From TrEMBL:
Organism of provenance: Jatropha curcas
Protein's UniProt name: UspA domain-containing protein
Domain UspA: 6-158
Matching PANTHER family: IMP2'P, OS02G0773200 PROTEIN
Coiled coil stretches, renumbered: none
Superkingdom of this protein's organism: Eukaryota
Length: 166
C-alpha cells in the first residue's frame, strides 16, 4: 500500500494495448507514490529525429505534460491518441500517480524485456492480439516471449475479451 510501484504498460495503440492501460490504471495504480510508464516500441527501421539520438538506450522519460504535446508525437513518429491521453490524464488527476512515457526502437519482444530491467519495473502490463496457434508459431508472440523472459511479473490482457476492432 505505502510502497511506491513502477508499473510499465506496453503501448502500440491497438484496442488490446488500450485495454491493458485501462486495466493497469484500475488495478495496479493506487496512489501518488506510484509511477506509470507508457512504453512504446517503434520498428527498427523507423527514421525519426529522436531515434538518431536515443536509438540504443531509448528516449529519456517524458513527463505527461510533454507527452500531450503534438511535437512529441511528431518527434518520435508516434500516434497521438485522445483515448490514451484521457486515460493517462485521469489516472494522474484522480490517483495522483506520476505518468511518463519512453520510446524504444527494435523488436518489441526484446525491447519490452529490456525496459523491465532498465526502468526497474515492479510489474508490466501488455495486451495480447489473440493470435491463433498457427499464426503465433509463424509470427511469434510478443506476450509469450515477454512472459517467459521478463524479470518482473507480467499481466497479459487478452484481446478475446474485446470486440474484434484491432
Amino acid at each position: 500500500m505505502g510502497k511506491a510501484s513502477r508499473i510499465g504498460v506496453g503501448m502500440d495503440y491497438s484496442a488490446t494495448s488500450k485495454a491493458a492501460l485501462r486495466w493497469a490504471t484500475e488495478n495496479l495504480i493506487d496512489n501518488a507514490s506510484d509511477t506509470l510508464i507508457l512504453i512504446q516500441v517503434q520498428p527498427p527501421n523507423a527514421d525519426h529525429t529522436r531515434k538518431h539520438l536515443f536509438g540504443d538506450t531509448g528516449s529519456p522519460l517524458v513527463p505527461l505534460e510533454e507527452f500531450r504535446e503534438i511535437n512529441y508525437s511528431k518527434q518520435y513518429g508516434l500516434s497521438r491518441d485522445p483515448e490514451v491521453l484521457d486515460i493517462l490524464d485521469t489516472v494522474s488527476k484522480t490517483k495522483g500517480a506520476k505518468v511518463v512515457a519512453k520510446v524504444y526502437w527494435g523488436d518489441p519482444r526484446e525491447k519490452l524485456c529490456d525496459a523491465v530491467d532498465h526502468l526497474k519495473l515492479d510489474s508490466l502490463v501488455i495486451g495480447s492480439r489473440g493470435l491463433g496457434s498457427i499464426k503465433r508459431i509463424l509470427l511469434g508472440s510478443v506476450s509469450n516471449h515477454v512472459v517467459a523472459n521478463a524479470s518482473c511479473p507480467v499481466t497479459v490482457v487478452k484481446g478475446s475479451q474485446l470486440s474484434s476492432k484491432s
